[in-house]
Amino acid sequence: MNRPRWFHGLLSAICLGITAAPTASAAPPRVESIEERGMTKMPFGKLPDGTPVEIFTLTNGGVTAKITNYGGIVTELHVPDKAGKTADVVLGFDTLEGYLAGHPYFGAITGRYANRIAGGKFTLEGKTYSLAVNNGPNSLHGGLKGFDKQVWKAEELKTPDGPALKLSRTSPDGEEGYPGNLAVTVTYTLTNAGALKIDYTATTDKPTVLNLTNHSYFNLAGAAAGKILDHEIMISADKVTAVDDNLIPTGVLADVAGTPLDFGKSTAIGARIAQIPGEPGGYDHNYVIRDYKPGSKTPVLTARVKDPKSGRVMKVLTTEPGVQLYTANFLDGTLKGKGGVVYDKNRAFCLETQHWPDSPNHASFPSTKLNPGDTYTQTTIYEFSAE
Ligand code: GLA
């Protein structure tokens, strides 16, 4: 088994009775367990209508993830640096109320359609569907009440690969305007190799479209440490889907070579970010993954990010044809997250593995159609190490 170097250090620490348990503040109650591998479940609060929400803590080999069944949100992800010191590398809130007050999809499962659908409309088998519109004229990340705001059924699993949390729900026919009763599962596994693996499945009883992703905001130094402009990133892509002023694809696949969008060689995120035009500026682009193989269930390397100070490295592998690099351009300092940290512009980056934006309106893009009798699958792996 290919375990990162810090894993062995941690194992010795556990044997000696010391633990590098994640440090964090007050609510919800922290689990101070030195269990090497496993899962605990705690109440995370209630929705205004009284629906209870839970939070699960998954631990494996020095990595700890907290995931709530509200929106399938990854609320915390504690990862060791090169010295074995852990930091929480995702943005989010300490309490359910933080999420209920509104936020830009921190850590959430977005669906039914991650990213944008132009004008909130698409035509399928001769019928035009009108979706909930929530981003200017467009529908973004599933509409007004997408998968990020739903309570999912949760099931705790023990797998040979590590502890896993299986979330499921049936999105009813017509939800946010989308056709078909859609049965969805999202399984988070915290693997023995120090990775957070996300497997998605879906089936429908009517032809429909879907595009699922996880919208985690990462800061490999820990959110309190500052912006992510010095993180170095490589993206395995030669092209992006060119977009108009509303971030809707024009249908053109634009070469990135020789532009500030080119991350073929590992480069600091901030090195050329000021050259990206627009307001608020910054990266918000869908990259066309070079090694994507239609129909393949084997995730391929999509991106690699390193924080040079802590040495933390995150590799992203996926079965999807695209990845949206988003540098948290819309964070403007009005949201305060975990531990009171002010979330300002470029405090984090997202690598949203997905089908391309607005695919239902572009016949030349990889299809996002799902037919009854077929099963949608998607696998994305966020793999951590330190060097
Ligand atoms: C995606 C979009 C961005 C923004 C964020 C959420 O990354 O591409 O434009 O909407 O989600 O704020």
Question: What order do the strands of the largest sheet run in, or round the barrel if closed?
Answer: 11-12-13-14-29-23-22-17-20
Q: In angstroms, what separates the terminal alpha carbons?
A: 19 Å
| Percent range for β-strand residues | 35-45%
- Average pLDDT for all residues: 92
* CATH-assigned fold name: Beta-galactosidase, Chain A, domain 5
The share of residues in helices is under 10%
Largest sheet: 9 strands, antiparallel
Q: What's the tally of helices?
A: 2
Tally of separate domains = 1
The poorly predicted ranges are 1-34
Gyration radius (Cα, Å) is 20 Å
CATH domain class: Mainly Beta
- Name the overall outline: globular
* Ligands and ions found: alpha-D-galactopyranose
Architecture (CATH level 2) name: Distorted Sandwich
Describe this structure in words.
The longest helix is centred in the N-terminal third of the chain and has 11 residues, at 5-15. The chain has a single domain, classed as Beta-galactosidase, Chain A, domain 5 (Distorted Sandwich). It is globular and about 60 Å long. A hairpin with a 5-residue loop joins strand 1 (37-46) and strand 2 (52-60). By secondary structure, the chain is mainly beta. It starts with a helix and ends with a strand. The protein has 2 helices and 29 strands. The structure holds alpha-D-galactopyranose (GLA). The site of alpha-D-galactopyranose has 11 residues, from strand 24 and strand 27.
